[in-house]
Amino acid sequence: MVLLTDRSQKRLTIQTGEIAADTTTIRSLDWDRDRFDIEFGLQNGTTYNSFLIRGEKIALVDTSHEKFRQLYLDTLKGLIDPPKIDYLIISHTEPDHSGLVKDVLQLAPDVTVVGAKVAIQFLEDFVHQPFKRQIVKNGDKLDLGNGHVLEFVNAPNLHWPDTIFSYDAGTQVIFTCDAFGMHYCSESTFDEDLSRIEPDYRFYYDCLMAPNARSVLSALKRMGELGEVKMVANGHGPLLRHNVEELVSRYRRWSQAQTKAETSVVVFYASDYGYSDRLSQALARGITKTGVGVEMMDLKSADPQEVQELVSRAGGIAIAMPPVSSKTAAAAVGTVLAAAKSKQAIGIFESYGGDDEPIDPLLRQFRDLGLKEGFPAIRVKDTPTEATYQLFEEAGTDMGQLLTRDRGIKQRKSLDTELDKALGRISGGLYIITAKKGDIKGAMLASWVSQASFQPLGLTIAVAKDRAIESLMQVGDRFILNILEEGNYQALMKHFLKRFPPGADRFAGVKTQPAENGSPILTDALAYIECKVSSRMELSDHWVVYATVDAGRVSKSDALTAVHHRKVGNYY
Ligand SMILES: Cc1cc2nc3c(=O)[nH]c(=O)nc-3n(C[C@H](O)[C@H](O)[C@H](O)COP(=O)(O)O)c2cc1C
């Protein structure tokens, strides 16, 4: 292993190593998160993984982020004389993997760039110079010699439209780029420590893959037609070698659950335009939190028949306004309008692209058709911030909740009454959970709270999957448990039970002070406890969040905790 460290303050290092016969990984380790991307929520940094396969011919699979320019190129030159590279395989063109393609082309002008048709088109706009290319389709093979026959697998939407996987029959390694990845930066090249990485693996899936669950299942089916897979050489995080079967099967299980959702929303975005794809992802995450499925579709390459099919079976439609200049996108929006039906929900937003079609005339047309508003139109006037992404996630959740409301009411009515009454005898206290992560704040009223361990001191809270604050209660996150006082809880309870619109400041008009962990303490609460999420157990409709506690204080030693007595067990 070679470790190089950049001189700047940011911790950027490079790790190289042999991972299989004739196969070297070049992992760019980005220890410090320096921008907000929805799937970076767990803040464990990330890695950008690139690979060199040396048969008789030599192939480089993906490059790195441009912030690694010097480090990556020096490392590459240390491993190989760049003009000797025959093929540069582009798994997809997102800049964190293809940011240095132009530099590699300068060092190796005769290299043949291998990628899906869309990837090559994107690259033409990106590198602005002629290059040799080879467009590959599903099932195409590239023989590098010495047994390294690469077979390409079409994996569109994982998570870019142009994604391909490359399977090396010689080593049984599959190169999957974003798929099966995670934003987790450590010295470990592989996944030996499953319990440490699994929250990040899941969170990354939820953010990037769940909105494309159907595409995940199609890609898994194609992967199944290959030979045995011994290693998944992903593009982010540790490579999968010890838990290949387990982690791949989780993608299958989670995606099957997504596609079984009774209702779905189709989210139309414009790839490569403004912040359309990122904001759509945040929206999609908010929707999937409610158990509603999502289908993402790129307006700029949408097939009219597919648009029509998706819209006709969806419960809701969300549209990111495309650029005025895109005729294909305008035609696709026309197809959406023609296929839309009353009773569907609609939500429209701008993505700060600079040249968006206006929202109002389109929204009016949907309303005239009888569609109900899934969330109020969102107009992004500045570069998106953390708060913008929160707004989109909450808007998505609102839309999902609108579509599942009737189901929830039905479920509540369907419980057996005697059992229901007996369950209602389980009581709890009244608490407000408050959390702050970066610029984002959240709060919720809770009563399913219980101490759960002595050593270390810990407690559990059952948090419904579609709670806004759920995103701030990931493993490693900190929050405050505010304990309400008997006889003095009404005002706080009433305030936090209000229905807050997406992105609203839930603390407006409430007295708070910052805790040591940064989250707001409610001044009028009886006591508070500082907590850190240690693990989460997934149930059908809730996450049971287990947190250890570091500090706490009671404001009135003789006062009692507010108790919540219930009559029935089918609500809190
Ligand atoms: C008495 C009471 C206790 C509650 N306890 C919980 C709880 O333990 N967990 C939970 O997820 N929601 C609980 N809720 C529901 C949420 O507090 C409430 O719906 C939430 O604040 C709405 O937030 P949202 O906008 O994120 O959906 C409770 C509600 C009430 C009325």
TrEMBL record:
<comment type="similarity">
    <text>In the N-terminal section; belongs to the zinc metallo-hydrolase group 3 family.</text>
</comment>
<dbReference type="InterPro" id="IPR045761">
    <property type="entry name" value="ODP_dom"/>
</dbReference>
<dbReference type="InterPro" id="IPR051285">
    <property type="entry name" value="NADH_oxidoreductase_modular"/>
</dbReference>
<keyword id="KW-0479">Metal-binding</keyword>
<dbReference type="InterPro" id="IPR029039">
    <property type="entry name" value="Flavoprotein-like_sf"/>
</dbReference>
<dbReference type="InterPro" id="IPR036866">
    <property type="entry name" value="RibonucZ/Hydroxyglut_hydro"/>
</dbReference>
<dbReference type="Pfam" id="PF01613">
    <property type="entry name" value="Flavin_Reduct"/>
</dbReference>
<keyword id="KW-0249">Electron transport</keyword>
<feature type="domain" description="Flavodoxin-like">
    <location>
        <begin position="265"/>
        <end position="400"/>
    </location>
</feature>
<protein>
    <submittedName>
        <fullName>Diflavin flavoprotein</fullName>
    </submittedName>
</protein>
<dbReference type="InterPro" id="IPR002563">
    <property type="entry name" value="Flavin_Rdtase-like_dom"/>
</dbReference>
<dbReference type="InterPro" id="IPR012349">
    <property type="entry name" value="Split_barrel_FMN-bd"/>
</dbReference>
<keyword id="KW-0813">Transport</keyword>
<dbReference type="GO" id="GO:0046872">
    <property type="term" value="F:metal ion binding"/>
</dbReference>
<comment type="similarity">
    <text>In the C-terminal section; belongs to the flavodoxin reductase family.</text>
</comment>
<dbReference type="GO" id="GO:0016646">
    <property type="term" value="F:oxidoreductase activity, acting on the CH-NH group of donors, NAD or NADP as acceptor"/>
</dbReference>
<dbReference type="InterPro" id="IPR001279">
    <property type="entry name" value="Metallo-B-lactamas"/>
</dbReference>
<dbReference type="Pfam" id="PF19583">
    <property type="entry name" value="ODP"/>
</dbReference>
<dbReference type="GO" id="GO:0010181">
    <property type="term" value="F:FMN binding"/>
</dbReference>
<dbReference type="InterPro" id="IPR008254">
    <property type="entry name" value="Flavodoxin/NO_synth"/>
</dbReference>
<keyword id="KW-0408">Iron</keyword>
<comment type="function">
    <text>Mediates electron transfer from NADH to oxygen, reducing it to water. This modular protein has 3 redox cofactors, in other organisms the same activity requires 2 or 3 proteins.</text>
</comment>
